[in-house]
Structure formats: structure tokens, C-alpha cells
Amino acid sequence: MSLPQSYQAYRRTEGTAPLTIEQVTEKLPPVKSHDVLVRIHAVSLNYRDIAMLDDTYPQPCLPRGIPASDCAAEVVFVGSEVSGFKPGDRVTAIWDLTNLAGTEEQSPEALGGDVDGVLRQYAVFNEQVLVHLPDHLSWEEASCITCAGTTAWNALEFPRKSGTALLQGTGGVSMFALLLCIAADVQSIITSSSDEKLDQARSLGPHVRTINYRKVANWEEEVVRLTNGRGADVAIENVGPATVKQSLASLAQRGTLSLVGFLGGLDAEKFPDLYFPVLVKRVTMRGIVVGSKIDQQALCDFLAEKKVSLKPLIDAVFPFEKSKEAFARLKSGKHQGKIVITL
Ligand SMILES: NC(=O)c1ccc[n+]([C@@H]2O[C@H](COP(=O)([O-])OP(=O)(O)OC[C@H]3O[C@@H](n4cnc5c(N)ncnc54)[C@H](OP(=O)(O)O)[C@@H]3O)[C@@H](O)[C@H]2O)c1
Fold it and tell me: Domain Enoyl reductase (ER): where (predicted)?
């Protein structure tokens, strides 16, 4: 079969922040024996994709790199030694190309960060970093799995069958986590600055409770009240140092605080003295860097087994040519869930 010689992609511009993205034509790299050539059908954006343009991302990123880590794609060609994939298979890639078993010790090589990402029509991956997609999901839904989904899965300590999860905000990670909790019958409390977004969240399942963090400044007290004085079993900390103290106060004895985000910045001065509160509550604090291939595979198996629809996760869909508008929507913070680009 004749393979495409070139394809369209976006790359970050260079210079002083805020950067933007620009469309480029790229030459297709060679497909080696263990490689798989994929045609990308949908890409979803994450907060980090904006943070890199604004120079607020706390990790190194490739100058003029191709943005985005999350895609849903179709296999079009496989190298001579590939055994796990064939043309026509629906796949996605893992976020950190070095994190297969979850035991590797090298630094991450993160798609769309320190290696080129997926906002492009075609890409070549080593077969070991690919995962089969659940059949029931559309390209748009499946494009949300890699970063937001695997992070939510890992941060919630899934699979879990009981307890209460506290989810901060209604962005991509939180809304994915909400859908996982609903599918597993786990109680959830989700926060937002918008009553309208909270109404929408409550409409998704019977065990969803909500708090407007703008109106209820001491939201940790409300979490404790909503859990009959017990507190949440796990909290996804999306905001960062500024709310860690409140998240910790929201937790039950032996709860887990999953450190995920930096939406409120990474000002170390705001990081509270946690030594005694963590000790006395027997809390586990976990640093989360998305998850491993095993985590992502477990998430895909769960989504397939429970036939979880990810449609409620999708805030807006933009065509490839309007990718800049998709980035602008994410930056506006008006979204609820995920912003998807179709190719
Ligand atoms: N460690 C990891 O592995 C990992 C993986 C994925 C993401 N992240 C990080 O996790 C964070 C969330 O990512 P995302 O892609 O889900 O972001 P996102 O979709 O851009 O989420 C934005 C939403 O978060 C909420 N928010 C913003 N500031 C808030 C605050 N002070 N308190 C509570 N909620 C607030 C707002 O929700 P409302 O409009 O409802 O108020 C906002 O719309 C980011 O910092 C991201 O970089 C980390």
C-alpha cells in the first residue's frame, strides 16, 4: 500500500509568551519494524496544552513542539515485527512513553511536552506505547482517555467500589472522575464556581453532590457535613498549594490526597504546614503523573465492561482548521469537561 508522504500538524510558535500554534506540513517519518502508523481522528486538549503556551508549565517542553497528548486513531500500517495491532484497529497512545509497567525509574517522556504530541493527521508510534480503544466509544469520546482519563483513574485509586470522592472544579480530569464514580456507584462531591455547571453535574447521576466554591468559602466544612461528619475517602487536588489545607481538612481518617494540578499556581509560600495534620489523620498523599500503560489499559477495560458513555464529558468539538479556537475555549475556563478537535 502507498503511505502518505506528508501530513498537516500544528506546532507551538517560538518567542515570548503567550505563544500560539501554527499549522505546518510535515514529512512522514519512516515506519520501522516495531512501529505502527496511525491516522488520528480526534484529539482532546488538556490544561497543560495552554500552560505551555503561557510559559506556566512546570516541566520542560520541546521548543516548537507539536501540542497535545490525547488522541483516538486508526491503524493504517504496521511494521514487519508488529504483533499486537493490524490495520483498522482503533488505538490511542499512552501519555508518558516510558511508563509501561508503572515501575520504570527514568524521567517521563510526555507526549505533547518533551516529545512531539498528537495534534496532527498521522503519527508513528512504537507498538509498545499503544492501547486498544473500547469499541463502544466514538473517536471524540475515546480521545479523552489518555491524560484526563488515566489521571482520574489513578488519582481516584480505581478500581474502587465504595467511599466518597472529592473532585475540584468541572474541568477535564474532574468530569472524567465524576463519570468513573457514577459508573462504579462511588459517591462523589464535585465543586465549581458555576451553579449551572453544578446543575449539569448533578443531572448525570444519583450520588452526585455539589458545592459552589465561590459561594461557600469553607467548602471543606461542607464536604464533612455532606458525608455525615466523616469526610471524603479520596480528594483530587486540582488547584495546588492554595487549597491543599482545605482538601486535607475534607478527608476522612486514612483518606488519600491525590496531588494532581496547579490551576491556582505553584506558589510554595501558600503550601501549608501539613506535618501534624497528615500524621494525625493517617492520610496518604500521592503525587500523580497521569499513570502507566497498565493503568490506562485497566481504565479502557473498565469503560468497555461497564459500557461507560463519555458523551457527557465533551464540552465542545472543533474541526482541525479551528484548533486555535479550541485552545481559546479551554483558556476561557467556560468549558465543562473536555474540548475535542476532529481531523
Ligand atoms: N498530575 C497529573 O498527572 C495531571 C494530569 C492531568 C491534569 N493535571 C493538572 O490538573 C489540573 C486540571 O487539569 P484539567 O485539564 O482538568 O483542567 P481544565 O479542564 O482546564 O479545568 C479547568 C477548571 O478547573 C476549575 N478550577 C480552576 N480554578 C479553580 C479553583 N481555584 N478551585 C476549584 N476549581 C478550579 C474550573 O472549574 P469551574 O469552572 O467548574 O469552576 C475550571 O473551569 C491542571 O492543573 C492540570 O495541569 C495534572
Answer: 15-341
Output phi, psi for 150, to 5 deg: -65, -35
Given a contact cutoff of 8 angstroms between Cβ atoms, the answer to whether 182 and 175 are in contact is no
Å from CA of 246 to ligand 1 middle:
16
CA angle 289, 292, 295 (to 5 degrees): 110
Average pLDDT over residues 228-233: 98
pLDDT reading at 262 higher than 80: yes
Q: What is the CATH number of domain 6-144+312-342?
A: 3.90.180.10
Report CA(273)–ligand 1 centroid distance (Å).
23
Identify the band that residue 274 occupies on the pLDDT scale cut at 50, 70 and 90: confident
152-287 CATH, one of 3.40.50.300, 3.40.640.10, 2.60.40.10, 3.40.50.720 = 3.40.50.720
Closest CA to 44 of 342, 293, 290: 342
> Taking 90 as the threshold, does the pLDDT of residue 272 lie above it?
no
Q: Whose CA is nearest to atom 36 of ligand 1?
A: 169
User: Where are the chain's structural domains?
Assistant: 6-144+312-342, 152-287
Q: Categorize the per-residue pLDDT at 89 as very low, low, confident or very high, splitting at 50, 70 and 90.
A: very high
pTM over 0.70: yes
Q: Which residues line ligand 1 (CB under 6 A)?
A: 46-48, 147-148, 151, 168-173, 191-194, 197, 213, 238-239, 260-264, 288-290, 330, 333
- Residue whose Cα lies nearest atom 18 of ligand 1: it is 171
